[in-house]
Amino acid sequence: MVQAPITVRLVELNDVKHAATATTVVNNAYRAEGGWTTEKDIVGGQRCSEKDMTEFITESGKPNTLLFAFEGDVVVGTVQIQPSHESPKEAEVGLFSVSPLHQSRGIGGKLVRQALSEMSVLGFDTAVMHVLENRPELLSWYKKLGFLETGERIPFVWPEMLKVKDIHFLTLKKPLEK
């Protein structure tokens, strides 16, 4: 079977029709069985709701920017650019997910590279990523993309969702090319 090419683009208002699929992609990537990015044994609950996704789509660019990866006309990945609260020149990579059925095909790298490019266009000079400290395989993958550990360790945002107590995020940063 021939697979449709993967395209990554900024969401548009009419992409609200993809909200349910995009929500499933995010929740499956973070919380379901399968896929090498799952956190199901570390964190419980949904990563995002369909209501959240609808708001991310309809409010994209105010202040966050959302991108989807499509295989044909089906959403298979997401990434969100979120301006940092610490520095006006930094933006965070968030809501990064690839459907477990589509992982290990280069889609994640394509999503991150497109997000980094868009960050640069938006005037940011540094990309920030927060990764659970007990995920060495993810840390290694982000380092291959040029992210470096800063030494900063911050508490998990929703501690009530943790299945493993006292887990923190490590902060990674990458200077953006102009």
End-to-end separation in angstroms reads: 39 Å
| CATH architectural label | 3-Layer(aba) Sandwich
Structural class: alpha+beta
Our estimate of the beta-strand percent is 25-35%
According to CATH, the fold-level topology is: Aminopeptidase
What sort of overall outline do the alpha carbons produce when their principal axes are compared? Answer: globular
Total discrete domains: 1
Task: Give the SSE layout.
Elements: E1 6-10, H1 19-31, H2 50-58, E2 65-71, E3 74-83, E4 90-98, H3 107-121, E5 126-132, H4 136-144, E6 148-155, E7 168-175
Parallel strand pairs: 4-5
Antiparallel strand pairs: 1-2, 2-3, 3-4, 5-7, 6-7
Question: How would you briefly describe this protein structure?
Answer:
This protein has 178 residues and is an alpha+beta fold. It contains four helices and seven strands.
Would you write up a description of this structure?
It comes from Mucor saturninus. GO terms for molecular function: acyltransferase activity, transferring groups other than amino-acyl groups. Residues 11-177 form the N-acetyltransferase domain. This is N-acetyltransferase domain-containing protein. It holds the Pfam family Acetyltransf_1. The chain has 178 residues and is α+β, with helices and mostly antiparallel strands. The chain has a single domain (6-130), classed as 3-Layer(aba) Sandwich (Aminopeptidase), CATH 3.40.630.30. It has 4 helices and 7 strands, in the order βααβββαβαββ. A 7-stranded mixed sheet has the order 1-2-3-4-5-7-6. Strand 4, helix 3 and strand 5 (126-132) form a beta-alpha-beta unit. The radius of gyration is 15 Å and the shape is globular. The model has no long low-confidence stretch (mean pLDDT 87).
